Amino acid sequence: MPVPRSVSPAQTPIEVAGTQQKKPYQVAGGLRALREVAGYGLRHSGLGNTLKTFHAINQTNGFDCQSCAWPNPDGERSFAEFCENGFKAVTYEVTKKRVDAEFFQQHSVADLGTRSDYWLGEQGRLTEPMLLRPGGTHYEPIGWDEAFQLLARELRSLGSPHEAVFYTSGRTSNEAAFLWQLFVRAFGTNNLPDCSNMCHESTSVALPPMLGIGKGCVRLSDFEKADAIFIIGQNPGTNHPRMLTALQQAKARGCRVVSVNPLPEVGTERFKNPQDLLHPTRLPRFFLGGGTPLSDLWLPVMINGDLAFFTGLMKEMLEAEDRRPGTVFDRGFIRHHTEGFEALVAQLRASAWNDIIADSGLTREQIRAAAQIAMESHRIIACWCMGVTQHHNAVATIQQIVNFLLLGGHIGRPGAGPCPVRGHSNVQGDRTMGIWENPRPEFLDRLRAEFGFEPPRQPGFDTVEAIRAMNDGRAHVFIAMGGNFLSATSDTEFTAAGLRRCRLTAHVATKLNRSHVVTGGTALILPCLGRTEIDRQATGEQFVTVEDSMGVISSSRGHLTPCSAQLLSEPAIVAGLAKATLGPKSPLDWEAHVANYDRIRDRIEAVVPGFPAFNDRIREGTFYLPNPPRDERRFATPSGKAVFRPAPLSRAAIEPGQYLLTTIRSHDQFNTSIYGLDDRYRGIYNGRRVVFLNPEDIAAAGLMQGQLVDLTSHFNGRTRRAAQFMVAPYAIPRRCAAAYFPEANVLVPIDSVAEGSNCPTSKSIPITIAPSAEQRPQV
Ligand SMILES: Nc1nc2c(c(=O)[nH]1)N[C@H]1C(S)=C(S)[C@@H](COP(=O)(O)OP(=O)(O)OC[C@H]3O[C@@H](n4cnc5c(=O)[nH]c(N)nc54)[C@H](O)[C@@H]3O)O[C@H]1N2
Ligand SMILES: Nc1nc2c(c(=O)[nH]1)N[C@H]1C(S)=C(S)[C@@H](COP(=O)(O)OP(=O)(O)OC[C@H]3O[C@@H](n4cnc5c(=O)[nH]c(N)nc54)[C@H](O)[C@@H]3O)O[C@H]1N2
Ligand SMILES: [Mo]
């Protein structure tokens, strides 16, 4: 097999020789999912740990699965409350392999730069703090105290606190996140970019002016009551597999599911629930038949066609309402609880069907079929994820989805409401804890009242702005609480250049990744405990808390012996850094708070609304944060009403000869962590450099299945290139293309962002496609 070619240390090497395309799966889940779980678990973490994990994952007294933010049932939990991909995420952390000092002695940073993302993650858990000196070729061990002193020195020597960037990924617990933002603000800046900036930021911007809240307004139990569930730009079979259980149960009651997605994702089509194996009465359902059909209607919108689709959907409903006034819209709700209805109606009337059809890529019949389901449903839930949030018009699209819900009064009604499905297991909680570059003044006021210092008021850098700041010399120190900043952000080579210009880059992490390999002058790797591990502090074993996608706070307690005695918990790392940096200027006694996380929770209770009697309540079980729109149809907008926000049609433009590229996750990855090289649901094996194209486009361009092509993105007259992707014919609308994240991130221009939220447009990138100079050997 040919040696993989390294593009640059910032990108995973090109490996295309063995990639194959076969038939996509017809059913999600099934016995195969169980086989994957068992195989993956045993291979990486051994029998003992596999069984222990199996026992504790998502159980009331166990740890919160780190894979996604889908909630656990409020009542009784299944004995196996997890999914294939959750199990892989856990196993990825519980692996028996170690990346220790000896490993770093054997592998220079240059060597690591030639390794694939998959290989880096497979090497095992980080075990001790490591330092890369200026000009050094290898990371070498460093003590924790020395590491904190070094970081503190660098931070204190900056011209201003705003020259440092403090990134957060969404696995960070509430306790760690609260301390982290407190430290950063006491240090003097709001430079707190987080993964949310690349994820649901468009949601967080779209919702507040309409609903007075930046979060979804449904509970899991609402899925038991809904008449229709719209799943928009989301692939739950891979990314939120436990959602399929909720959909399966909803379907059994006769609820209808509409999937809005350019791709026919198997997870929204058919599902065999592996958990049925544990219920004797459900066994026949598992073994007989081809699984539960999930989707009643699949709408293959063109990439970025969602805004037009929702405009068409509402226009169709408006025409029906015109014919039979008072029968389609919830006039009572609109009158009492909303404002701006007339503006929306005017916008719908002004939108032309020709434009709606052209922009959405759907037929009038398809839109009519969706409207029919909507008009027959008294309770509608709309779920959306990255297929919606990562476009230039994402905020407008989300607002159009909420307009649709408001028309029918589908908010604050059991079985109905907006349901942005969050990604990382605590990304929503991190924001609640104040991880935000643009904090509300009320939040800062409460911080000041509780801790007696004046927090900075000037907004900080979000992710995109942080990358620009590192590149143009406004930021010199980059410290990350988890994540893989380099590979997760857009414009990979530009981000790499920014990191290289920093004086210092440091990462609190559990596993090795590419961000540890493309560094500033000095670099640190600070290994931390994972969710699965026992967190013992001065007063005894600790637990942490997280918030799921539906605003439920639950506790998480690790059960396994830490993989190395030298790991610190995330709160302990923040405390060590804060104490060294702030010294006597500290707003609290860091050590005392880390000794007993109850003290951190007391501080959270004092600062963050919704946490009264936090320590008591969390010991009794889980609890919901208040959600006024859901609980009492109360909207914290200036008028106290929900606000319609009409969004005029707009679409990502492509020139003749161009395609619109979306970047997606395979079934075998968690963001930048690559679990394996297959995407069996889509029929892709042993490789990730694949571009999905419509067969007619492939023929029209004179290309062939399996051929290698180079992708070039176009933005404001500049091009960016990613070489050697294998052509894979797929059921995707014409002029649309899909490739995997993070391989395709190099194509996403730093300046191409969603209006209002600054989220990189990872789901709509205009590209051209040309045959590669190098082709794979014919077999
Ligand atoms: N196993 C696993 N679980 C995960 C993750 C993971 O990587 N692996 N990541 C976690 C995180 S952080 C997040 S944010 C979520 C992500 O969860 P998803 O949003 O489901 O992830 P993506 O793969 O980005 O998928 C987006 C979906 O949108 C579709 N899509 C693409 N472009 C468009 C468009 O223009 N319009 C519409 N309507 N659809 C479009 C794609 O076909 C795909 O089905 O999952 C979380 N859970
Ligand atoms: N093109 C494109 N780009 C995208 C996306 C896309 O759809 N397309 N999606 C975007 C989205 S939705 C998101 S959320 C971001 C994700 O961006 P990030 O959150 O930055 O990336 P992850 O890959 O989730 O981070 C993985 C790393 O986190 C570390 N880690 C794991 N567990 C822990 C822990 O418990 N503690 C600590 N301290 N570290 C830990 C490990 O070292 C691991 O290597 O990527 C974004 N980028
Ligand atoms: Mo995400």
Automatic annotation (TrEMBL):
Domain of life: Bacteria
GO molecular function per UniProt: 4 iron, 4 sulfur cluster binding; formate dehydrogenase (NAD+) activity; molybdenum ion binding; molybdopterin cofactor binding
Cofactor: Mo-bis(molybdopterin guanine dinucleotide); [4Fe-4S] cluster
UniProt cross-references to Pfam families, sorted A to Z: Molybdopterin, Molydop_binding
Entry EC number(s): 1.2.1.2
Enzyme class: oxidoreductase
Ranges for domain Molybdopterin dinucleotide-binding: 660-765
Residues in Molybdopterin oxidoreductase domain copies: 125-496
Alphabetical keyword list: 4Fe-4S, Iron, Iron-sulfur, Metal-binding, Molybdenum, Oxidoreductase
Similarity field: Belongs to the prokaryotic molybdopterin-containing oxidoreductase family.
Protein's name in the database: Oxidoreductase alpha (Molybdopterin) subunit
Organism of provenance: Opitutus terrae (strain DSM 11246 / JCM 15787 / PB90-1)
